[in-house]
Amino acid sequence: MKLKEYQGKKLFREYGITVPEGKVITGIQADPSKLAKAQVLSGKRGKGGLIAPATTENLERLFKYCSEVLVEEKLSIEKEYYLALTIDKEEKEIVILFSEEGGIEVESVKNIMKLPYRKLNEFADKRFVTIIEAMYRIMSDYNALLVEINPLAFAGGKLIAADSKIILDDNVKHPEYKQKLTRLEQEAENSGLSYVELNGNIAIIGNGAGLVMATLDVISYFGGKTANFLDLGGGASAEKMEKALDIVFKKSPSALFINIFGGITRCDKIAEGLVNYKAKHNVLIPIIVRMIGTNEEEAGALLAENKIEVYNSMEEGAKRAVENANQ
User: Do residues 193 and 310 both lie within one domain?
Assistant: First the structure.
């Protein structure tokens, strides 16, 4: 179970880790001097436009994607670090992960230090020890699989947890953190998919939080309303695509727009899943696909053979999806 950022920060505060001053809002309360952060469980919110100054316009946009927004003070950050505690499954012990570089591109950092927690006394920079000890207590008390701060910011002469990521063991019950999911959202979570229900008539499937959020924006720009959106994540298989289709179609949308940027996700596998699903089910609604990247030519040929509309432009595909939904 993943905790939302504000839930993780509440735990940090209780265990003595400094966090920015802030509050959770469920409606428009603009304050441009503060930072608004959409409380969604997908990563890379900064890249996806889900963290922005708390203006009325930005808040209206963020509330399209979530029901809760964390509004907190802006930090004058001098330095960002990465710090996490997790379980090494091979060694069967808790390890510390640390890097002098933190932030949205931490995945590309190659010099992340790994140290068993039992060797905490060997951690060179003693400024971090108190925070690490607090993170360890959270792991122990809440049966956490991961406690992560990225970035751990140095601002105003102190270390501040500018973000939080905590994953609790699903095998241990935590009723206080039970998420209020719909039946389909729960089904998606059980299948390793990120899915959100809305009130429109256009279903969206994409890969990556940033791309999915951009897709919602462009659908809205052309006058469409989203029924639901599903993030496949990276490296999705044909079988995972079939499961994604099964979930979004249960909301009975008027059209489906699939927007894929193939990197580690192969376009041909997405196309294969779509074609397989159509062969097994009586799909009556229009399906529009925008697909570029790895193996896009093979994917395009397969979709064309099966009379599925394919576009290279997200804008053209979104516009076509809105037109089809409104017919």
Answer: yes
